[in-house]
Specification:
heterodimer; A: Rossmann fold; four-stranded antiparallel sheet; 10 helices; globular; B: mainly alpha; 2 strands
Chain lengths: 233, 319
Amino acid sequence: MLKVSGIETGYGASQVLFGMSLTVGAGEVVTLMGRNGMGKSTTVRSIMGIQPLTAGEIIMEGTPLQGLASYKVAKAGLGLVPEGRQVFPNLTVHENLIATAANRSRRPDPWTAERVYALFPALAQRRNGMGGILSGGEQQMLAIGRALTTNPKLIILDEATEGLAPLVMAEIWRVLRQLKEAGQSILIIDKNVETLTRIADRHYIMEKGRVVWSGTSRELRADTGLPHRTLGV
Amino acid sequence: MNLRAHATPRSLFTFAVLALCALMPFIAPAIGQDYYVDVFIRIMIWAIAAVSLNLILGYGGMVSFGHAMFLGLGAYTVGILSYYEIYSAFIQWPLALLIGAVVSLGVGAICLRTKGVYFIMITLAFAQMIYFLGVSADEYGSDDGLIIDERSQLGGVLDLDDGLTFYYVVFAFLLLSLFIVKRLVNARFGMVIKGIRSNEDRMQAIGFPTYRYKLACFVIAGVLGTLAGILFANFEKFISPDMMYWTRSGEMIFMVVLGGMGSLFGPVSGAVVYLFLSEFLSNITEQWHIIFGPFLILVVIFARGGIDGLLGGKRRHHG
């Protein structure tokens, strides 16, 4: 579904990505892990067309995405749950969900605001509240819900559970499992190795702007020293 | 429906202002202050202009310092056509609105490539260009302006020379402007515009060509501003470049801020209070700006939601 091949980019004179590559297949859940500053978010920004590439290519179902404006990348079927949630604070919860709704994957049963409320009952209770006054957990639920209502072919979660309380994190993991069972392709950027090995199919570990390890959950669990060496956990 | 349950200070104020507008042609003669009819016509025309500015400023976060140019375009189209004895509203008004749309499309297409202080400066620059175009138009009165002999003619449908008819035409256009803006901001278009205001990059990354949305919003606001100019020319029966001067754009911004940015009725409240207060204070002293200025500063500091906020309007976090 998504093929990222040898992408390179940076900020000014400082290069951040050095031939970064990854793939996500249809219905697959893939993670991208790494210490802070290794280029995970830059990879996401590059995929989404926010950060321009200097080399490499990004192909989504046969369509090249590099060089496209970010709104065209999103229209190609990529939905991003960004780091820091970035819900629209001056729109209500319901407006956040319906303002950008679309059926980009042409699903027969598209995600709607009502389906999101069923997935996150906490949001249903706050539907008329402004996005800016939600708790961090509720904002993350809303950010996921907002991405879902664009019905993306692939959903990307950047720092999916960063700064969330354990109970909220459990809620997010529950939803991701549910989405996986429904056949949703997902790329997760997070640091919770233990939980991710139970949810995801494959993993990539980044160091200094490139992939230094990739493999299945079983392979990651088998190499007990790997997380400590590469992720510091 | 339990009306009492819906009666908030905000809704009561809105109702009171609209009722006052609707009944002023009868109230003013009854209290022996006929000139209040003209005061209210002026308020309603400025309110239409402020409502149009609120669409881009309040909802879209685009601080245009050149909105008076649209007022001028509408007024000058009516004035220049009248100069050539073309009085038909069916020619004057559509042509003025078309010119307003084309100019706002061109100006917006350039200005919206900038943001923040650059957007403010470039809209100001365009407005000043149009202002100096008016100043240099010797044929149409230059600095001295141009007297309009007759109001627009509606082919016998309505007689705008009749004061009462003209008053209610302006009132109807005010209601129409509020209706259009209400429909727009409650539609998906408005939600996207509000979303762009708080986080444009995010809205783009979700799949919305934000530039096009902002441009569409700018053009709609420009056309509504032009409508105010059409009414202004018909009311004053006089046009001059002064109506396009940058201070006019500043006054419009203050009406919106005073009434409450991003609230539907805020700009109307702002226009009412702004014009009434300036009228009242100018009767007390010639140096009324000395009182008016600090008042506006206090409003900006202590009543950030403007009149709408003071009346308990929904708090909106602008991020």
